[in-house]
């Protein structure tokens, strides 16, 4: 897996379209988990993000996304995986070990709290990395300064409880393996315009930040 991610990163850095070793177009993936939370939320988000990255970054992502169970060996086919929802998240011991191996081996997980997920996903990720804690990333972290610059950190897409948007990370051997976006609702901003009726500038900020997350993941 790590070899595959390195090959993809080299392709990205050389302005070539990311492809797999077999030459197929890469897919972004959505993580399916147990516990009752709606892992399937925001169904139009990843296709729109892939299309935006293809236009803005010169990538060649497939517009359809993969759906992968957290405990499946298929997880290792996707270098970038997105996780979202509003409620409970439960990882079995085997699922936590599989996700841990995937992330240590070179994979990248983006978690986007769609409001209400935070207390559950933190417990679940503690099972994956009991020795690590989420660290809030400073505004000058490179993930906020890729093709697009966000001097104030994460953009605020939707308001919930008056809390600021925050970006947290889990680092394994100085590599950011998991980026957790809290109280931002990035995924809502990626959805079709008709879903939330967000202003164009808000949707643009969400897609640009999403592109930064992908760009950083492939280049770090």
Automatic annotation (TrEMBL):
Gene3D superfamilies xrefs: Domain of unknown function DUF4159
Keyword Signal applies: yes
Keywords: Signal
Signal peptide: 1-17
Highest rank taxon of the organism: Bacteria
Name the UniProt record assigns to this protein: DUF4159 domain-containing protein
Pfam family, one: DUF4159
InterPro entries: DUF4159
């Amino acid at each position: 897996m790590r070899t595959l991610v390195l090959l993809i990163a080299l392709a990205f850095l050389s302005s070539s379209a990311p492809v797999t070793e077999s030459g197929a177009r890469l897919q972004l993936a959505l993580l399916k988990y147990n516990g009752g939370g709606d892992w399937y939320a925001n169904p139009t988000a990843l296709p729109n993000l892939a299309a935006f990255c293809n236009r803005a970054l010169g990538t060649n992502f497939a517009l359809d996304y993969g759906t992968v169970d957290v405990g499946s060996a298929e997880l290792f086919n996707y270098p970038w995986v997105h996780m979202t929802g509003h409620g409970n998240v439960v990882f079995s011991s085997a699922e936590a070990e599989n996700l841990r191996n995937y992330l240590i081996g070179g994979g990248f997980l983006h978690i986007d709290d769609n409001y209400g997920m935070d207390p559950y996903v933190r417990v679940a990720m503690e099972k994956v990395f009991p020795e690590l804690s989420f660290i809030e990333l400073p505004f000058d972290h490179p993930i906020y300064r890729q093709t697009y610059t966000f001097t104030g950190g994460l953009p605020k897409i939707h308001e919930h409880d008056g809390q600021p948007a925050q970006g947290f990370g889990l680092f394994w051997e100085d590599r950011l393996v998991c980026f957790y976006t809290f109280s931002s609702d990035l995924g809502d901003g990626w959805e079709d315009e008709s879903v939330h009726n967000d202003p164009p500038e808000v949707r643009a900020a969400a897609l640009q930040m999403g592109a930064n997350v992908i760009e950083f993941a492939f280049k770090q």
